[in-house]
């Protein structure tokens, strides 16, 4: 099911056929370097995460959706919302496969997803967590209109928190 569409991308629920690319991403140390605690995951984690994220949407009304490039229907990553581990806030998160970095896709989908969350899902506050050394992701977050709020720690890692209300 299509969630939203931008000029070059569309967002839909994750599907079992996304597992091959997702497993490649989860196993790529460079892709995972700034995700969670920075560890890679085996293929089984990619397969189970698809079910997990679809179940998550049924429970919470939002999830991490599949990002699809319209020109070739390629699954290029994920973007969406989830509660922080301590349930204190709703986080905007995104992860794209390395071949798609530097093309403006992250900014394009993050802005659209944030707008969808605020206007369609009626989210009142959204945060983004970013490693301090991940300057490309900081630029993406700032392009969404989020502002730096504070330093925090999740997953045993010192992170920067940005927010918008």
List keywords for this structure.
165 residues, Aminopeptidase, three-stranded antiparallel β-sheet
Give the arrangement of secondary structure elements:
Blueprint: E1 2-5, E2 9-12, H1 19-26, H2 29-32, H3 43-60, E3 64-69, E4 74-83, E5 90-96, H4 105-119, E6 126-130, H5 135-143, E7 147-154, E8 157-164
Helix pairs in contact: 1-3, 4-5
Overview of the molecule:
- The protein has about 160 residues and is an alpha+beta fold.
- The chain has a single domain, classed as Aminopeptidase (3-Layer(aba) Sandwich).
- The protein is about 35% helix and about 30% strand.
- It is built from five helices and eight strands.
- The strands form two sheets. Strands 1-2-3-4-5 form a five-stranded antiparallel sheet, sandwiched between helices. A three-stranded antiparallel sheet has the order 6-8-7.
- Helix 1 crosses helix 3 and helix 4 packs across helix 5.
- The longest helix has 18 residues.
Kindly give the count of domains.
1
- One letter per element, helices H and strands E, the order comes to EEHHHEEEHEHEE
Question: Can you give the helix content as a percent range?
Answer: 25-40%
What's the CATH topology label? Aminopeptidase
Terminal CA distance reads 28 Å
Shape, per Cα inertia axes:
globular
Enumerate the strands of the largest sheet in spatial order, edge to edge or round the barrel.
1-2-3-4-5
- Proportion of residues in β-strands: 25-35%
Biggest sheet descriptor: 5 strands, antiparallel
What's the CATH H-level superfamily name?
A: Gcn5-related N-acetyltransferase (GNAT)
Rg, please? 15 Å
Query: Averaged pLDDT, please?
Result: 96
- Global structural class: alpha+beta
Low-confidence stretches: none
Question: CATH class, anyone?
Answer: Alpha Beta
How many E-type strands? 8
CATH architecture: 3-Layer(aba) Sandwich
Helix run count: 5
